[in-house]
Amino acid sequence: PVTAGSIVVPLGHVIGNEKWRGSELAQRLQGKVRLIFEDALGLVDFHLPNRTCILLISEADMVAGDEFKRRLVKFRNASSLKGIVIVEKTPISDQYYLGVQKLVVLELGMVLLPVANQGEASQLIIQLVSF
């Protein structure tokens, strides 16, 4: 399920899951990093240099139910990659945030970075690719 692990991502590049094509996040990444879409990333949303993967939990994912939790657990169990979870923490998703934080940080031992929207998420990804 985590197929990008064997790929070496060059510095300045991001491999994005095809499902993000056309999104505000992808549009904001264009021109700042070299964004390449791939439909076989499995559980991963974005694959960065240095064997780092981003799993992005959108406001809609949190409100819709527990599917994103299964995806996080599968990633953690199936991967030796560094996983960073970016979560859209908005007034609507705020009520779910504490549960997500507990799962990601305490139970799965992964890094959790909250953002207000896809624009902030794109800035964060650009910063992670830059160093």
Task: Provide structural commentary.
The chain is α/β, with parallel strands linked by helices and 131 residues long. The chain has a six-stranded mixed β-sheet, with helices on both faces. The protein has a single domain (13-130), classed as Rossmann fold (3-Layer(aba) Sandwich), CATH 3.40.50.10130. It starts with 12 loop residues before the first strand and ends with a helix. It has five helices and six strands; from the N terminus they run βαβββααβαβα. The model has no long low-confidence stretch (mean pLDDT 90). Helices cover 39% and strands 24% of the residues.
SSE blueprint and pairings:
Elements: E1 13-17, H1 24-29, E2 34-38, E3 46-48, E4 52-57, H2 59-64, H3 67-78, E5 82-88, H4 94-107, E6 111-115, H5 118-130
Parallel strand pairs: 1-2, 4-5, 5-6
Antiparallel strand pairs: 1-3, 3-4
Biggest sheet statistics: 6 strands, mixed
Q: How many individual β-strands?
A: 6
Number of helices: 5
Secondary structural class: alpha/beta
> Can you identify the CATH class?
Alpha Beta
Number of domains: 1
Order of helices and strands: EHEEEHHEHEH
CATH hierarchy: architecture: 3-Layer(aba) Sandwich
What Rg, in angstroms, do the CA atoms define?
14 Å
* Mean pLDDT across every amino acid position: 90
The rounded distance between the terminal residues' Cα atoms is: 27 Å
Strand order of the biggest β-sheet: 2-1-3-4-5-6
